[in-house]
Amino acid sequence: MHSYQKHTVISVRNLTDTVYVLRMTREELEFSPGQFITVGLLNNVHMREYSIYSGVKDDYLEILVKDIPQGYLSSKLHQLSPGDEVRIEGPFGYFLLSEEHLSKPLHFIATGTGISPFHCFVRSHDIDTYTLVHGVSYGHEQYEYEDYSRKNIIQCTSRDTGGNQHMRVTAYMKNKELEHNAEVFLCGNSAMIYDIFDLLTAKEKPSEHIHAEVYF
Amino acid sequence: MTYFLLHLGCQMNQSDAERVRSVIESMGYRSVDREEEADLLGIMACSVRQKAIDRVYARIHKWNQWKKNKSIITFVSGCILPADKTSFLKLFDLLFGIEDLPQLPTILRQYGVPSQLSQTTPNDTSSTDSYWNIEPSYTSSFEAYVSIQNGCDKFCTFCAVPYTRGREVSRPSQEILDEIETLVEKEYKSITVLGQNVNSYGFDKRSSEMKFAELLHNIGEIGVRSKKEFWVYFTSPHPHDMYKDVLEVVSSYPVLANNIHLPIQSGDDKILIKMNRNYRIAAYEKIVNDIRTLLPSATLFTDIIVGFTGENEAQFNNTLKAIRKYRYNMAYIAQYSPRPGAASYRWEDDITTEVKSSRFHAATNVLKEVALEENKKFLNEIQRVLVYKKARRDGFYEGKTEGRVPIQFPSDNEALIGTFVDVHVTEARSFSFAGELCAP
Question: In CATH, which of 3.90.930.1, 2.60.40.1930, 3.40.50.300, 2.40.30.10 is domain A5-92?
Answer without folding.
Answer: 2.40.30.10
